[in-house]
Automatic annotation (TrEMBL), chains A, B:
Family of this protein: Belongs to the NADH dehydrogenase family.
GO BP annotation list: aerobic electron transport chain
InterPro entries: FAD/NAD-bd_sf, FAD/NAD-binding_dom, NADH-Q_oxidoreductase
Keyword hit for Acyltransferase: no
Keywords: FAD, Flavoprotein, Oxidoreductase
Name the record gives this protein: NAD(P)/FAD-dependent oxidoreductase
Coiled coil spans: none
Residue ranges constituting the FAD/NAD(P)-binding domain according to the UniProt record: 31-350
A Pfam family per the record: Pyr_redox_2
Cofactor: FAD
One example GO MF annotation: NAD(P)H dehydrogenase (quinone) activity
Keyword Cell division belongs to the record: no
Amino acid sequence: MLKSRDDKKRYYSSFTTKLEKVDVIRLRKPRVVVLGAGYGGLITVTRLQKLIGVNEADITLVNKNDYHYETTWLHEASAGTLHHDKCRYEIKDIIDNSRVNFVKDTVVEIKKDEKKIVLAQGELEYDYLVISLGSNPETFGIKGLKEYAFGITNINSSRQLREHLEYQFATYNTEEHKQEDRLVIVVGGAGFTGIEFLGELANRVPELCREYDIDHKKVRIICVEAAPNALPGFDPELVEYAVNHLQRKGVEFKIGTAIKECTEDGIVVAKDDQMEEIKAGTVVWAAGVRGNSIVEEAGFENMRGRVKVKPDLRVEGHDEVFIIGDCALIINEEINRPFPPTAQIAMQQGETCAKNLAVLVRGQGEMEEFKPDIKGTVASLGESDAVGVVFGKKVVGTKASFMKKMIDNRALFMVGGPSLVLKKGKFKFF
Amino acid sequence: MLKSRDDKKRYYSSFTTKLEKVDVIRLRKPRVVVLGAGYGGLITVTRLQKLIGVNEADITLVNKNDYHYETTWLHEASAGTLHHDKCRYEIKDIIDNSRVNFVKDTVVEIKKDEKKIVLAQGELEYDYLVISLGSNPETFGIKGLKEYAFGITNINSSRQLREHLEYQFATYNTEEHKQEDRLVIVVGGAGFTGIEFLGELANRVPELCREYDIDHKKVRIICVEAAPNALPGFDPELVEYAVNHLQRKGVEFKIGTAIKECTEDGIVVAKDDQMEEIKAGTVVWAAGVRGNSIVEEAGFENMRGRVKVKPDLRVEGHDEVFIIGDCALIINEEINRPFPPTAQIAMQQGETCAKNLAVLVRGQGEMEEFKPDIKGTVASLGESDAVGVVFGKKVVGTKASFMKKMIDNRALFMVGGPSLVLKKGKFKFF
């Protein structure tokens, strides 16, 4: 797709006039390639395009879609409580198209030793690389999950899940012999995504019941979690609040229960060596992510697709490669465990990454060390409730829900400024 | 469910005071039972409740749902161009609840010799019966149609079809290996319903493509019709207009081609002994109806569930039984073929039926003969185009589309007066 720059260099080197020499120099501008326009990648690019001049480097951003989506909002699009178009925006509206070359393509392979990226439709060479490819779902080898469970992974999977739910409700009344299992929804995982999805689902089900003339009592929402608690890592008081809230809205919890298999008809779970089959028309897998398989296949030393990075976010032994976001592994030394892969950290890494890239491109200045600044974590429980910790304080209820929306709006502001907030922001506070 | 009135009669007959005698007389009021709240049944009841006094007869209306739906609008609900709630209204809002006893139940059997109706939840006795149960789909014994094809039959089937279509579009982009067949929609039948559904579908597909990021060129709509022409019975000039209109919007026609089998993957068709498999994510069967199976099972002499009725709409040999609407067979003597089962005729029959019931209940007056008065027939081709004949004149385009909406609004007016027209009417004329 893109012509080899080496060819061009050789071609231009054969000339000797001054003009061509200038061209040669211009062609030797460092090439910065950013893979992935998620939170980390987009922040890197939008910051870098301001930090360095147009003649200082070539910036190329590669992304599978021509849009960015808000990964942290997908539980809403999946439940059908927010349209997916509200959860995404076009990349060309965010980047400075005169400074950044946007390539809509899928990354197939990173050839780190050749400094080359293989895309589905071509190849790219780089001098500096930012890997911000996001995560892949982690199914822990559980049989049938990939085939039969729905995921809250991206725009495509979210609207498929939304439509699958609608189809189950729409089909129920057409059947002479009612299959009650159609109206059973199993959510695997009571972590952050699972809980947030349950919150939306609990609000969505009454709407679906009205739309398809179904008695609300016929619907069952079951959350299965292998860990001994919902929302691991959260304050026990907040966990209790969240679980009580969802139970009041009809969600059943099976905690300390592991999904052993997912089939066409539902799931098989085990608790204390007791096996049980739960028939369900819908199984949603929301129990975790791993790093990106592209990173694993590239041969970087990794743990489940996440690469331990140096304080300046570069990879040991590859000073030209930054890894940020879900593929970067950074240890929280306070608890000696990795920081979770969150949008908040990815965006902060994007800021540091852009600054450090500018230092490298210019060959002057000092590399900055990345220090996460966790302002807070809030899990929504539907439209108007939430639980979380903000600036070290526990919050619940409408106050937490308000904070959650402010966090969502802040992410928009960070990437696209006030105009993006006005376009896609959440303003239904009470 | 309902206590036997005979029991009560015997009980009251044992008394001799004047007061009880009056009660006995009152209990002997004739019982009119109307089965089905379609166009024919609803018109019968709404006219009858005005024609006769509250002491002259007991009127009971039985219907499977607590709502009436506009059968002739279902192609819109099925395509997703009109919400199904716009196509239905509650029966209790239409009937005079102080005069008509509404029973929401499913008719299981008509015991015509015992003058009894067996319902799913109970039994009813009648002195006069109106059978206005509507039609069943006619699959002509084609293998697999019942299992795999979607129907435009009622509210339930329409919203299932709508959601199935959405699900196919939503799933397409989630698949690593794209199944192009997902976006193939086969419509079996180029009769009235088939053509009207195609008109809506042709408008809906571009919306679905936008919603799910799909290239319009990837979608195929194929109409398969066994007869040598689309819209059999229509003027050839109008047929040509309709087919051209739909072809311009991307519909492919396979005329003179019979569906031999429907499978999970699509259909098998035959033309001139040539067999062909068409893979399709959606197959819609819109090729005809027959009378109701309840009527067949009741033992009335019938042709595919339709019973030839006398000019006063009663059944030969059963002077207490009226059959109207899709289950009634009336010969159009001009062409020596049966009138097609249309809403227009069903409503006109309802008017006659109500008048004749009043005559029977009172034991005075003269029975009216039913004479269909065909004002026109218009087939819509989406939101803003149509073809048809109105008051003997051919109409096409926006004029025909306007007439179609007037016909739809008139049906509302006939049943529920101006308030129903304002609530559910179609006013987007241009």
